[in-house]
């Protein structure tokens, strides 16, 4: 190589004349900072990566060039100085034969050279001379350290006094100082406010801090809090410590309301802290499972390994690897270089052995993203998939194989390292023969359907002298056996792969956290440093453009949009935006343990919170006399009911019982305890919460606990202003095994009561609390309060399988009763005669007494002709919406957010069977709930029209008849160009009454059906919709399309109609043609979808 000696500013260096370079490169430690120009220039390295390097103006003296040049500064180039093809440079084979270095430089070189030689001989001789560069640096002196901007400390005592007296956030502090009230927290911390020399102070004392030391804290007004936080966190004597240490530092001298949240947000928004946060502190997102590929070589993963040292005798220094996603079958080819042409040729050579795949997954290497590779993909119809930058886990299959292959090569070629390429075929055979942990089979078995003959098989044959007689099979039988063997093997491998993927995801996700970014969020990206691509640092902030897939995001990097995985991103908190939002907010404190419903009357806030808490009574406050008995009963009937109620007065109480019929059990998927961080209960509510806990202890509902499990409690405010203590069991529910007990169907209950004349509804008192917890599972229900840990002795509300346990108990208790049904704790008795009703009522009460269950008298309704049940009013053979619900719908305000839209649609959708054409009318409103629609949407005329029309149609909806299973059902259906509709009817007294409405909007594909196909689709869809009433009984289909009369008899040539005809054969019906004017219900539904 053309390497000579030369000089850079008098320093002797090694010089390389590189004819393949177009610039000058110098080593970083050979220049001084004063020689840097302050500009950067892009450079394409030998591995084709593009990097930015700083520029410096240097004076060089070499056989190839002498003078000042602008050079790129690199940390560790191959030689000290590399001279490329710059203007005036001599050819690499023609250095200047008459070149002589400058005398001063030469003398300086000899002196330093001798000094270096002396230093090599002994390390006891000290430096006795000083170089010119060292003398220059000494003359410059020490540079000043970078510190935060100077704080404005020109504040007088009077300024603090004035600010304290006018600060609205200190109102409560000033009131407490005037009243001299001491505040005691749940952890025995004592604090009080006072004035001293006109300044507002706070005294604080805690047994857990500095051995009960008393702190005197100055209360800081809002305008000076930024100064305190900046001094405590940003300055050079603060060290950018974390939130806790910064908070402790400030609290030693200062205080203000919300100090901890303010300091937390300040530290969180610190630019220096965010950029220097260790990578491990940013939690990874949950693992996204790769799709299961069931066809061999449908998708393959490729990668390049190298450069590998040493280079083999054949000149190979790289390996191109390929792994099949279905069978894990690997291929590997040794390469001399990795130009795109050579890589493409090697890939095509692999395809000739295994077939052309449909998809290729690779990283963003230029060999795989070049135009040549794209053209090959187009010609071979291969879809190219690329991983996101710096996220090799996306292509983990081939990356894992690369590591295994390199380890095998390192071990096998230890004695002959330059022949590692000759070991490749044998090592590939070893890998293909070994079973894969994720599949349970070897790649050979999955690809060939048999175990190949390897060295272990040969050894067994030699030692046992076994001879296998070949099976004589026909070609046909051999193909069938091979196909069956491959199918069963692949099926078992797929099952094993699902299990291993789920197992790996479970362990991976234990330390993961779901992080979602939205467009315009600012993020920092973990990227290589400019000097070393193996060292990573946070760069940015950049703006998020869009979310791509589950965990990938497109980021705008100074005009260029690139895709990155979420694990490389960290949300950036802008302090300016934080201060701006804080300035717009009047919030001072946050009650995180109170859930308030919307639209609450503000006047209710003045009520005494302790009086509003729903504390259960210790003594019964209700008796059988509080039962609501119909006033329309005759005196004889009234006497019958009174005698029954008096007989069973012991179970008619507002105190819950304790049944022996059922116990609630909780079975978990893991034994790892669930512990929730306790929510802070506001001081104003703590006494009320304690009273509730005491009452529950006296009622034997809960007991103290020492369980490792702990769920949090929240205080929920109901619409009437009362409070309810709830336990947050969400984490426990996520690891609870689901109980598949079927729940009752309200429509099935309503179908039984069309002929009933008398109705009674019984509501159990605190139904869940009447079921005991299994003693072995009580610890799982433990919850944390300000006074310690408690657990439930009875089944609490909020558990995942509580409804299933309760429904199973009711099914056992009411088994065999013909006129009684239940939906959880709402029991409905329905009979046609008075005698049956009294008998049934006595039997139900008797069974509740035997089960030790109590009913709440004020919620029991007895012997009514019509009553409310499950949100409906039933009786006289009809069913109508609940009057209170209709009133709520009539007075419903116009929705303003997506949440309010969903709430309104959920309320009115509960009664959709009463509204003809509900789906079509609600389309403008349902469109507002779609993804992408802003939360604060624009309310247009079409939305107002749909909103008012839905309310009007439900308020004035026709009354539906309850289905009478003894009468024949009639189905009417019709179809239009855009929709299909159906009505279920029954005939009463010569007139046909609707039982239910249904409609459906046609898809784009279904709109292309012919007229007869749409009519048939309407019939098929109607039968599926009303299958509960129609299957297994004779019914009538009325339609206004004449050819459909022969649908059950005619032989059609249309394949779709033939399938529908076969579907209709499972129903027993007769098809009747009617006039279009008579088919008003279904015709209206279909025409208006």
From TrEMBL:
Keyword set, alphabetical order: Endonuclease, Hydrolase, Nuclease, Nucleotidyltransferase, RNA-directed DNA polymerase, Transferase
Domain Reverse transcriptase, residue spans: 697-874
Pfam families, per the entry: Integrase_H2C2, RT_RNaseH, rve, RVT_1
Residue ranges constituting the Integrase catalytic domain according to the UniProt record: 292-451
InterPro entries the record matches: DNA/RNA_pol_sf, Integrase_cat-core, Integrase_H2C2, Retrovirus_Pol_polyprotein, Rev_trsase/Diguanyl_cyclase, RNaseH-like_sf, RNaseH_sf, RT_dom
Transmembrane segment boundaries: none
A biological process from GO: DNA integration
Single GO MF descriptor: hydrolase activity
PANTHER family attached to this UniProt entry: PROTEIN CBG26694, PROTEIN NYNRIN-LIKE
Name of the protein in its database record: Reverse transcriptase
């Amino acid at each position: 190589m053309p390497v000579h000696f030369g000089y850079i500013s008098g320093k002797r260096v090694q010089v390389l004349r590189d004819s393949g370079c177009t610039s000058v490169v110098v080593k970083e430690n050979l220049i001084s900072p004063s020689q840097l120009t302050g500009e950067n220039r892009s450079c394409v390295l030998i591995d084709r990566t593009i990097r930015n390097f700083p520029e410096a103006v240097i004076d060089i003296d070499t056989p190839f060039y002498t003078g000042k040049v602008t050079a790129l500064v690199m940390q560790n180039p191959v030689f000290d100085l590399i001279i490329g093809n710059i203007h005036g440079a001599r050819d690499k084979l023609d250095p200047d034969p008459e070149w002589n270095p400058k005398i001063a430089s030469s003398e300086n070189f000899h002196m330093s050279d001798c000094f270096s030689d002396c230093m090599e001989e002994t390390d006891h001789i000290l430096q006795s001379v000083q170089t010119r560069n060292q003398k220059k640096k000494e003359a410059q002196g020490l540079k000043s350290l970078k510190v935060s901007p100077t704080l404005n400390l020109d504040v007088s005592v009077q300024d603090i006094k004035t600010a304290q007296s006018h600060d609205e956030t200190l109102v409560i502090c000033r009131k407490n100082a005037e009243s001299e009230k001491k505040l005691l927290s749940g952890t025995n911390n004592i604090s009080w406010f006072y004035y001293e020399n006109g300044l507002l102070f706070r005294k604080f004392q805690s047994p857990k801090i500095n051995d009960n030391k008393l702190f005197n804290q100055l209360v800081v007004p809002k305008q000076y809090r930024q100064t305190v936080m900046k001094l405590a966190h940003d300055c050079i004597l603060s060290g950018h410590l974390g939130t806790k240490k910064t908070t402790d530092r400030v609290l030693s001298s200062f205080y203000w309301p919300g100090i901890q949240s303010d300091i937390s947000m300040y530290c969180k928004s610190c630019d220096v802290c965010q950029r220097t946060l260790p990578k491990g502190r940013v939690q990874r997102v949950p693992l996204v499972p790769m799709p299961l590929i069931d066809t061999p070589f449908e998708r393959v993963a490729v990668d390049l390994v190298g450069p590998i040292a040493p280079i083999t005798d054949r000149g190979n220094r790289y390996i191109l690897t390929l792994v099949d996603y279905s069978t894990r079958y690997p291929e590997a080819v040794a390469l001399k270089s990795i130009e795109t042409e050579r890589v493409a040729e090697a890939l095509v050579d692999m395809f000739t052995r295994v077939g052309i795949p449909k998809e290729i997954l690779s990283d963003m290497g230029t060999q795989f993203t070049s135009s040549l590779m794209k053209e090959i993909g187009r010609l071979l119809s291969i879809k190219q998939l690329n991983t996101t930058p710096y996220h090799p886990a996306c292509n983990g299959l081939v990356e894992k194989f690369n590591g295994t292959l390199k380890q095998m090569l390192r071990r096998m070629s230890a004695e002959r390292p330059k022949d590692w390429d000759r070991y490749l075929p044998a090592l590939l055979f070893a890998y293909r023969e070994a079973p894969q942990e994720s599949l349970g089979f070897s790649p050979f078995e999955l690809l060939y359907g048999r175990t190949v003959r390897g060295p272990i098989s040969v050894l067994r044959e030699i030692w046992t002298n076994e001879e296998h007689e070949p099976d004589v099979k026909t070609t046909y039988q051999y193909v069938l056996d091979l196909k069956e063997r491959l199918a069963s093997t692949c099926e078992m491998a797929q099952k094993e792969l699902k299990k291993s993927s789920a197992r790996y995801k479970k362990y991976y996700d234990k330390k993961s956290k779901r992080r979602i970014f939205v467009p315009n969020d600012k993020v920092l990206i973990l990227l290589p440093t400019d000097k070393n691509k193996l060292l990573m640092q946070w760069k940015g902030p950049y703006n998020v453009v869009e979310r791509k897939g589950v965990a990938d995001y497109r980021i705008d990097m100074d005009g260029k949009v690139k895709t990155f995985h979420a694990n490389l991103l960290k949300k950036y908190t802008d302090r300016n935006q934080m201060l701006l939002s804080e300035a717009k907010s009047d919030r001072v404190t946050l009650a995180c343990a109170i859930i308030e419903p919307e639209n609450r009357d503000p006047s209710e806030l003045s009520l005494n919170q302790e009086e509003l808490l729903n504390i259960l009574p210790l003594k019964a406050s209700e008796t059988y006399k509080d039962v609501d008995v119909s006033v329309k009963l005759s005196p004889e009937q009234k006497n019958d009911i009174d005698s029954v109620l008096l007989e069973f007065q012991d179970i008619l109480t507002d105190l819950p019982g304790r049944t022996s019929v059922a116990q609630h059990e909780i079975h978990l998927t893991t034994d790892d305890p669930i512990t929730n961080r306790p929510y802070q209960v506001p001081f104003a509510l703590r006494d009320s919460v304690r009273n509730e806990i005491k009452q529950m202890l006296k009622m034997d509902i809960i007991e103290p606990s020492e369980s490792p499990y702990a769920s949090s409690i929240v205080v929920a405010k109901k619409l009437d202003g009362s409070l309810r203590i709830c336990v947050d069991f969400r984490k426990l529910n996520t690891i609870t095994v689901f109980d598949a007990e079927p729940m009752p169907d309200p429509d099935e209950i309503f179908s039984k009561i069309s002929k009933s004349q008398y109705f009674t509804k019984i509501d159990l008192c605190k139904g869940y609390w009447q079921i005991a917890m299994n003693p072995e599972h009580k610890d799982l229900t433990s919850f944390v309060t300000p006074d310690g840990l408690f657990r439930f002795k009875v089944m609490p509300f909020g558990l995942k399988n509580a409804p299933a346990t309760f429904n199973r108990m009711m099914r056992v208790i009411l088994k065999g009763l013909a006129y009684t049904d239940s939906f959880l704790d709402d029991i409905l008795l329905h009979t046609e005669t008075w005698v049956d009703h009294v008998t049934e009522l006595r039997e139900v009460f008797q069974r509740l007494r035997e089960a030790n269950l109590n009913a709440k008298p004020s919620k029991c309704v007895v012997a009514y002709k019509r009553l409310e049940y499950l949100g409906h009013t039933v009786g006289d053979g009809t069913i109508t919406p609940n009057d209170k619900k209709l009133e709520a719908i009539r007075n419903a305000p116009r929705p303003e957010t997506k949440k309010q839209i969903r709430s309104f649609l959920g309320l009115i959708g509960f009664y959709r069977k009463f509204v003809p054409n509900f789906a079509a009318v609600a389309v403008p409103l349902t469109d507002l709930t779609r993804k992408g629609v802003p939360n604060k949407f624009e309310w247009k005329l079409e939305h107002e029209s749909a909103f008012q029309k839905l309310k009007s149609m439900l308020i004035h909806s026709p009354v539906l008849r309850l289905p009478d299973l003894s009468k024949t059902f009639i189905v009417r259906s019709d179809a239009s160009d855009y929709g299909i509709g159906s009505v279920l009817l029954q005939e009463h007294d010569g007139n046909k009454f609707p039982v239910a409405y249904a409609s459906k909007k046609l898809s784009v594909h279904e709109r292309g059906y012919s007229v007869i196909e749409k009519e048939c689709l309407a019939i098929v869809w109607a039968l599926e919709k009303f299958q509960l009433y129609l299957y297994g009984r004779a019914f009538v289909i009325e339609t206004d399309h004449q050819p459909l009369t022969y649908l059950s008899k005619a032989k059609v040539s249309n394949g779709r109609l033939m399938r529908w005809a076969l579907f209709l054969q499972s129903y027993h019906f007769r098809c009747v043609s009617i006039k279009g004017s008579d088919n008003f219900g279904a015709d209206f539904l279909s025409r208006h979808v």
